[in-house]
Amino acid sequence: MVTPDVESDIELSDVESGEDGIVCVADIKKVITIKDLKAYFEQEQGIPADEQMFVRENEILYDAILLELLEVLPGKMQLYQKISPDESIAVEISPELLEGGRLPDLVLTITGGKCVSDLKLMIQKELGVPPARQYLTSMGIKMNDELPLCEYIAVRPPKFFLKETKEDLNNSSESDNSIDLS
Prior knowledge:
CATH topology of the largest domain: Ubiquitin-like (UB roll)
Strand content: 25-35%
CATH class of the largest domain: Alpha Beta
Low-confidence stretches: 1-27, 174-179
Oligomer: single chain
InterPro entries: Ubiquitin-like_dom (IPR000626), Ubiquitin-like_domsf (IPR029071)
CATH superfamily of the largest domain: Phosphatidylinositol 3-kinase Catalytic Subunit, Chain A, domain 1
Number of helices: 3
Number of strands: 10
Organism: Thalictrum thalictroides (Rue-anemone)
Radius of gyration: 18 Å
Protein name: Ubiquitin-like domain-containing protein
Mean pLDDT: 76
């Protein structure tokens, strides 16, 4: 079984399950969506579907996504097992500020059920950076303020990257391409 601090590379073109965490789907005809893939791993590996997170190319793959649209043959995905929303965990923040540059990592303790916006308030208290100017990422994925942290915490110890921006992110376009991170 995949443990919370282990990631698995998934290649649907393979059909074996190994001790190194590489797990593959034998009957691709029954696996159409990410939700189907989660059901497969729940049945075959005992990982509850709601604790699974699939990531591909710095993007979380949600249940309704069709695998054929991802061109997953032979593309790779990582399978992570998420933490419980009730679990309290120390998260490591690697901050890079406009003035002061890269700072030593900051460790904050928070529960998985708290929202990213709650973490941003804690960062503001420690570093003085307003939440609207914080660009947080985890596993290369931009973190959404409204989502609970357990959606992003699958690797132990979790490490988030903070980049202070010149502009207020609340007033910018949703597109990552429009954000000035310099």
